[in-house]
Amino acid sequence: MISMYTDPRGEAYEQIIDLAIQKSESFVLGEKIGNSPDVDRSHIANVLEALEPYLMKTIVIQDDDRAEVERIRKNFNSHAFYTTGTYYFYKCCEESGRVLKQMANRLSDWVYPNLPEDLCFLKKGGGDYLYSVVHEHMYGIDVTEEEAVELMNRITGLFLKLQAHQDLDRLLDDAIKHKTDWLYISGHGLTELPEQIRELTELRDLEIFEQDLYRLPAGLFELSKLERLKIMTADLESIPASVAKLKNLKELRIYCGSSDRPTPTFRLKPKEQISLNRIPPEIGELEQLEHLSIHYTSIHELPLELERLKHLRFLDLGNCMIKRKPAFLNRMKKLEYVNVSQSSLF
């Protein structure tokens, strides 16, 4: 089973549905017990009605019957069954595939309350050919590494996790080609990010876990569609003022004192020696920012411009050098959680 970095969308979604219909016997959609009963189910009802001619069977797993969940999951060997609910099995055919393509634009669209959840295609005899667990951002397809390369060459927008992506240049080349909106970079021994990062123009979610990463390139802050940025490293030089260019950023998380490959000789710097010692005042220009976490730094004060973040709900500056919570934070009425302390929690 080869995982996807993100789910294919648009034409790539239609091509992968066609492929899964050819390779599978049935597909499964679910309504989970935990789904709110108060939402409008009219659209879900329309989808179920459109798929009714292809319905093979329905399985209902009662609330709190974990043993039954495990039995069903083991029986079908599928990611589809992880909680109680109602599961609908449909015949794979050209007509049912057409409905799936009409009702959604990508696998992550199959989520409650807009649609029944977690589209999974089952092979004859059990096991997933294609699976999705949308809330966990998990997607995968049952192909070999060689088949995955062939599919990626054929379907632009299908971005699969290959062994070859241990080479960073290959990873970035494929990420750019397939216009990915999510990327995780780790284990490459980077001290700097390559400037090629600026070519990931569709990126909305970027996570970097590289303990030797020290400097952030200008190209990173040209990713205008970026909504979530998470950086984990042992030490970071600074947050550049150009962070203000990320106008769509909703979440910024930076964790110093992190190691992606700890060894017996690895020694964590005292936080007093961490290079990251200030938050640039330009942070106040991130009008969409809702979540700001910066941990294990020598930051000793907060810029007053932070108060301009009208949508900020979560502020977490643990293990920093700030001695007391600034008074201006009390005026930020949207804040739901605040941790500004010299320890992990305050």
Short description, anyone?
Keywords: Leucine-rich repeat, Repeat. The protein has 346 residues and is an alpha/beta fold.
Question: What's the SSE blueprint?
Answer:
Elements: E1 2-3, H1 11-23, E2 26-32, H2 42-51, E3 55-61, H3 66-76, E4 85-91, H4 94-103, E5 117-122, E6 128-133, E7 138-141, H5 145-154, H6 168-177, E8 182-186, E9 205-209, E10 228-232, E11 251-255, E12 291-295, E13 314-317, E14 337-340
Parallel strand pairs: 8-9, 9-10, 10-11, 11-12, 12-13, 13-14
Antiparallel strand pairs: 1-7, 2-4, 2-5, 3-4, 5-6, 6-7
Give an account of the 3D structure.
By secondary structure, this protein is α/β, with parallel strands linked by helices. It folds into 2 domains: 145 residues, no CATH class; 179 residues, Ribonuclease Inhibitor (Leucine-rich repeat, LRR (right-handed beta-alpha superhelix), Alpha-Beta Horseshoe). Helices cover 18% and strands 21% of the residues. The protein has 6 helices and 14 strands. Strands 1-7-6-5-2-4-3 form a 7-stranded antiparallel beta sheet, with helices on both faces. Helix 1 runs antiparallel to helix 4. The model has no long low-confidence stretch (mean pLDDT 93).
